[in-house]
Write a structure and sequence with these properties.
185 residues, mainly beta, Porin, 9-stranded antiparallel beta sheet, 10% helix, elongated
Length: 185
């Protein structure tokens, strides 16, 4: 079922690229995100990260854009020591109004996205046994956000994220980020 959905979405993107009146253009988000990963074997904790999300806008009109992007996040966790963590999703995003970047009169916009992600964050370190306890999973990712009036081709947005494992809904991640959407026109 997942393969059929992926094939359908790929065909939709390719089809819309061919019929859209504008050529596909680059897309970039950059900003900070505060994630909270959890795992039943360890405590939830804060995972602040820098997020860089390159992508391509395939289908676009005045108030809508279909975007494929890869919001790569890298950051640190701290419990007893500093540890690096990563979050690597692949997303299909639907951007409306100001987040589409084509309507300069739109004061607010909305972002809805779905995809898959790999997350690997160290939640704690056992000083006695010397073992790192990770929240590490491959799973679903859903984003929702709101964007504000476009200024100088940079659009500030607030993005909420939720992710869970394909195999266990007891493992997951939530997050909130402040990101700047930038376009190549």
């Amino acid at each position: 079922m997942k393969k059929i959905l992926l094939i359908f979405l790929s065909c939709l993107c390719i089809y819309n690229t061919g019929i859209s009146q504008k050529r596909p253009v680059g897309y970039l988000n950059a900003g900070g995100t505060l994630f909270i990963p959890w795992d039943p074997n360890s405590n939830a904790l804060f995972f602040p990260a820098f997020t860089l999300a390159p992508g391509i806008r395939f289908f676009q009109d005045n108030n809508f854009a279909l975007v494929v992007n890869f919001p790569l996040s890298a950051g640190i966790t701290y419990k007893t020591d500093l540890f690096a963590g990563i979050d690597l999703p692949a997303m299909l995003s639907f951007n409306f109004a100001s987040s589409a970047g084509n309507n300069r009169n739109a004061k607010i916009g909305f972002i809805l996205a779905a995809g898959e992600a790999y997350t690997n964050v160290v939640n704690s370190y056992d000083n006695i046994s010397g073992e790192k306890i990770n929240t590490k999973f491959w799973g679903f990712r859903f984003n929702a956000g709101v964007s504000f009036k476009e200024e100088n081709e940079i659009i500030p947005s607030i993005i909420l994220s939720y992710g869970t494992s394909f195999f266990s809904h007891k493992v997951g991640i939530i997050g909130i980020g402040l990101q700047l959407i930038m376009f190549n026109r």
